[in-house]
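Batch job 17 of 40 flagged for manual review because the log was empty.
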Amino acid sequence: MRTQLQPGKVHVWRLCEADLDPKTLADAYDHLLTAEERQRYDRYKVASAARSYLATRRLERTTLSRYTSTAPQDWRFRHTAAGRPEIEHPNPHGLRYSLSRSGGMVLMGLTREAHIGVDVQSKEPSADIDQVAGVFCSPTERAWLEAAQTDTERLGRFYVIWTLKEAYLKALGTGLSTAPASVTVTRTGDGAIEVAHETPGDTDRSTWFLYDWAISPDYHAALAIGSLTKPLSADDVVLFNAA
């Protein structure tokens, strides 16, 4: 039975790479990857990176096939100049998606018609927040980090900013070609998340929905949806576990 994705809804699939046994990954290599994808896989020198790439490709193909009659091996993809993946064919339902992986966790977000970006990060207590924030965060975001009462709270705020901004830039379609520090994400008093550009050409915030959540104590995730024709809420986001 196919999974139904209605307009105005967002589906997010989570995969823990450790849940995939070697045979499952071997079958994915043999039966799902294109020749170009196999070549890319074979170029990886680090086993964990190769495994993560293969797990991501498997999630990408098998998840899309949950929504259509297209077999996983028949999907064909292209990438924009900024590296955003898109379905080349077939795509009769107007599916759009985004992928992210970090520290053994893979995330895939899907919607119809609207632009989407997702990001997941493995939370590293030893992260050099000051160094990253200096180039990644806007002055407003750095002030929010400095206002944290404890190191734990500061680390949590750092990953909120990081994941939301990564997801937003993916959905925007520019990736890191847009200077991350020129964009500010803020949480309002009612918990909503807003995004603003601190350079000319401010994005119309009314057409965007941003959402973040803790997958577990070790992972933080976020998604961004743009070009909306109607507002979304957290109730419109459905989370799934993949295997």
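Reviewer: the log was empty due to a logging misconfiguration, but the result itself is present. The chain has a mean pLDDT of 90. Unflagging and moving on to job 18.
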